Amino acid sequence: MKNYLILAVVAILFASCKQETKPVENVDYAEETLDVTTSVYPENVSKVFNAHGSVEAWNSFKTLEFTMKKPTGDEKTTVDLHNRRSLIETDAFKLGFDGTEAWVMDKGDNKYEGKPEFYYNLMFYFYGMPFVFADNGISYSEVEPLVYNDKEYPGIKISFDAGVGQSSDDEYILFYDADTNKMAWLGYTVTYFSKEKATSFNFVRYADWQMVNGIELPSKLEWYKAEGFTIGEMKNDLLFTDVKLTKTAQEDSFYKKPAVAVE
User: Fold this and answer.
1) pLDDT-based confidence at 17, cuts 50/70/90?
2) CA-CA-CA-CA dihedral for 128, 134, 138, 142, to nearest 10
3) 210 backbone dihedrals φ, ψ, rounded to 5°
């Protein structure tokens, strides 16, 4: 993650060291490019990553774009995958993160009522599953499987190290299909607003996937009502279109805070 998380929606795991260093004496690692491979993750976590295209392939891309189809209009998000700068564009506002601060710029008479520092990478975090769980500062542990329609989905609990992101007390559980190793459900807590550890999980079903440059990314997410770990009826869903993964980074000016924007 590059430790920029916001989600009140997300958090991450135990993989002691996620970087491989070269066994050479007197190496100036400030000048080295370190590789990240799935071998540093627990076996079940690596299987999920590999089922979606592998961490190595994901890390080869620099920019992700996707559009959410919402009742209020399309919402386009662009994210720099290496430093998590972002830009969200709608008919009502532009909202971004320039690497230092979040900002918002309203269009016309519209007034953005949310918190830019919370929202700027909220949906990216949901959309970048499961690869956002390859970030640094994460711990992994196994949990009881989720049962839905008489099928069991093994679970991997993900938690942040203290001080990681804006809500390090957030917790996540990735539930995967044991037949395919693909991610199937996400359980998550939100502590950004209460600043207190949550006692119940929200649940999202990763209902459909799409292949983009060898990486399997969501095409439909479904939020469900739940009592404890008992899944109820669907509350709402989101469709994702116009997805692009490229190996070219946007210019710094693309994410720069406009002079008329507010924090």
Assistant:
1) very low
2) 90
3) -135, 145
CA distance 134 to 128: 10
- The token duo for 69 is 């189809």
Rounded to whole angstroms, how far apart are CA atoms 33 and 3?
Answer: 19
Q: What is the mean pLDDT of residues 126-130?
A: 97
**Cα 215 to Cα 18, 82, 93, 212, 246, distances in angstroms:** 20, 16, 30, 5, 11
How confident is the prediction for the chain on average, in pLDDT? 83
**Cis? peptide before 130, omega within 30° of 0:** yes
Which domains, and CATH codes, for the chain? 33-242 (2.50.20)
Q: What percent of the chain has pLDDT over 70?
A: 78
Q: Determine if residue 163 is left, alpha or beta; phi over 0 gives left, psi from -120 to 50 gives alpha, anything else beta.
A: left
> H or E segment at 55?
helix 55-59
255 close to 96: Cβ distance less than 8 angstroms? yes
Q: What is the pLDDT of residues 198-232, one digit of tens each?
A: 568 999 999 999 999 999 999 999 999 999 999 99
Q: Which two tokens stand for residue 108?
A: 């016309």
Contact (CB, 8 A) for 263 and 103 = yes
Cβ atoms within 10 Å, residue 145: 15
Average pLDDT over residues 152-178: 80
Q: Identify which of 120, 162, 136 has the alpha carbon closest to the alpha carbon of residue 13.
A: 136
Dist CA 14 CA 40 (whole Å): 10
